[in-house]
Amino acid sequence: MSGEVGVQQSPPPEVIRAVPVRHPGRWVAVGVVTILAAMFAHLLVTNDRFEWAFIVDNMFAPPILRGVWTTVWMTLLAMTIGIALGVVVAVMRLSANPVLSWSAWLFTWFFRAVPRIVLLVLFGNLGILWARLELGLPFDRQLGALFGIQDFSARIFGFDTRTFLTGYLAGLLGLALSEAAYMAEIVRAGILSVDRGQTEAAAALGLRRTQILRRIVLPQAMRAIIPPTGNELIALLKDTALLAYVPVTSELWFQLSAIGARTFKLFPMLVAACLWYLFLTSLLMIGQHFVERYFSRGFDVSRQARVRLRGWGAGQGGK
Amino acid sequence: MTGQAEDPLLRVEQVHKRFGHLPVLNGVDLHVRAGEVAVVIGPSGSGKSTLLRCINHLEKIDAGRIWVAGELIGYRQRGDRLHELREREVAAQRRAIGMVFQQFNLFPHMTVLENVMEAPVRLRQAGRAGIRERAQALLERVGLADKVTVYPARLSGGQQQRVAIARALAMQPKLMLFDEPTSALDPELVGEVLDVIRDLAVEGMTMVVVTHEMGFAREVGDSMIFMDAGSVVEAGAPREMLANPRHERTRAFLAKVR
Q1: Which CATH number belongs to the domain containing residue A83 in this structure?
Q2: Which of A259, A289, A319 shows the shortest CA–CA distance to A66?
Q3: What is the pTM (predicted TM-score) of this model?
Q4: Which residue on chain A is closest to B177 by alpha carbon?
């Protein structure tokens, strides 16, 4: 009480102007990093094996630009399929139906266990199993034999596997399916991160299960799903280089290494590959930033709110 | 099922519920007539919340029957066998029962207005414009007309709970369930939420309210049950029960909450 009175009477205290703590370690670090950076710059400029002119000449050659284009649309297409299928698999996995749940588990198990490069080469060679792909009644021969008909065939249409399962499609399938397996795990974790009370409140309003999932749970799960999905997209972009082994010949890395092999100047083309992938990845990171901001709407202050809620248990009210 | 007109709006009869081996409800009875307010009191863990959650089938009951407006909840009786209702049928039954939760459970990614409009819009209760008008009227009624475009995280607990009440009312339910609506609120915010519930009672809404606010219970409640260990220990008129509890356990509980 007496303190209050004292504060009112005395002039405001002097603003503190203390001598800041010195950080000699930082200056040492600045020195070391500067020297290393200078050495690296010196290397880039003076070592003529880099052949910068050759890099610039070839980096923007028409086949390389087509390669960039292939890489970009293969990434986007595989990711789109991967996300869509991943959501389906995640929902199946969380379903009460044991058959769905187990098939979803099996799918993720297989596509996460096999390395992407093996998967892609495998898909590239699926033509070995079937010369033709046909659509019709399953097990038609066996069913026909059962009823005594020789060579019974109930097929609507078909096509040659080589024309259908081109490098593109095989590569796309391989990437998309394997991506779906990873996305399924990410989506599942995202769905589980949404508070149960949300589902209950929506159910109490009389919303149906699919409506609750689509309108209430998934939009909130997105907040947990987006950051790892951004990482997945970047990883997928880089993994399109594996398409060279399907093979998808128009792809960026295949083209760059082809020029390298033809001209015996592999190293400059490796540098060109680094530059292209750095550029594309940076673009994606910018996009990710905006998507994350969109899906965190309504949540900017909610974290504080949640902390406040917990505080009530300990008897701390207010802000 | 004869003479449905005289039947209470909510009939809970001999309801049993257990979680694994733990019995939570042991033969609970509760009748609430249309326009009446039933108050449920009791210590935590006595099964009050579970009872409410059974009424709109968020929990499946193990034995007994629950009827709301003459409709058996969660099941269909064919001959002497009960058939589980489909998911869509359960959802349809829940539309007649509004529920307000202790932790509000507003949808954080939607504005206040979107929260209130969501269910009626998805369930095509009316045209979008009509629903918006009704939602705005409801928000005005709970005193939040100026908050329609705000996200829930921006609101105080009391405001959030009032939005939650408006959201439940938007489905035009016949019965409202309140599960400790003020227990998560700062003391100075309790009043504004109780005021809204009191207004609803005056307007003739049928309600079951689980609460620890004894003053409110005495004032608004038409009937009261005291639950302990999954059973109804004592039932009666709130004024009478709070003034002269007949049962020893009721007396002990009331002595502690006052």
Answers
A1: 1.10.3720.10
A2: A259
A3: 0.80
A4: A204
Domain count within chain A = 1
ipTM computed for the complex: 0.92
What number of C-beta contacts closer than 8 Å exist between A and B? 90
Per-residue pLDDT of chain B (258 residues; tens, 9 = 90+): 444 446 799 999 999 999 999 999 999 999 999 999 999 999 999 999 999 999 999 999 999 999 999 999 999 999 889 999 999 999 999 999 999 999 999 999 999 999 999 999 999 888 999 999 999 999 999 999 999 999 999 999 999 999 999 999 999 999 999 999 999 999 999 999 999 999 999 999 999 999 999 999 999 999 999 999 999 999 999 999 999 999 999 999 999 886
| Residue A73 belongs to some domain of the structure | yes
Residue A318 within any structural domain of the chain: no
Q: Which positions in chain A have a beta carbon within 8 angstroms of at least one beta carbon in chain B? A: 195, 197-198, 200-209, 211, 215-216, 219-220, 297-302, 304-305, 309, 312, 317-318
- Give the integer Cα–Cα distance in Å for B39 and B27: 18
Using alpha carbons, select from A318, A147, A299, A104 the residue that is nearest to residue A219: A299
Nearest to A206 among B101, B123, B164 (CB): B123
Residues B38 and A257: their CA atoms lie apart, in Å, by 78
- Domain extent for A85: 51-294
Asked whether the beta carbons of residue B153 and residue A299 sit closer than 8 angstroms, the reply is: yes
Q: Do A298 and B109 touch (CB under 8 A)?
A: yes
Q: Give the start-end residues of each E strand in chain A.
A: 132-136, 155-160
The overall longest dimension of chain A from CA atoms, in Å, is: 111
* DSSP letter (8 states) at residue B120: H
Domain contains A32: no
Q: Do B87 and A302 count as a contact with CB atoms less than 8 A apart?
A: no
Asked, for residue A290, whether it belongs to a domain, the answer is yes
| Core vs surface per residue A120-136: b (16+ CB within 10 A) or e | bbebbeebeeeeebeee
Using DSSP, state whether A207 is helix, strand or coil: coil
The DSSP result for B184-195, as a single string, is TS-HHHHHHHHH
Asked whether the beta carbons of residue A302 and residue B153 sit closer than 8 angstroms, the reply is yes
Distance of residue B125 Cα from the nearest chain A Cα, in angstroms: 12
Residues of A in contact with B119 (CB under 8 A): 202, 205-207
Runs of H (alpha helix) within A205-265: 209-211, 218-239, 252-263
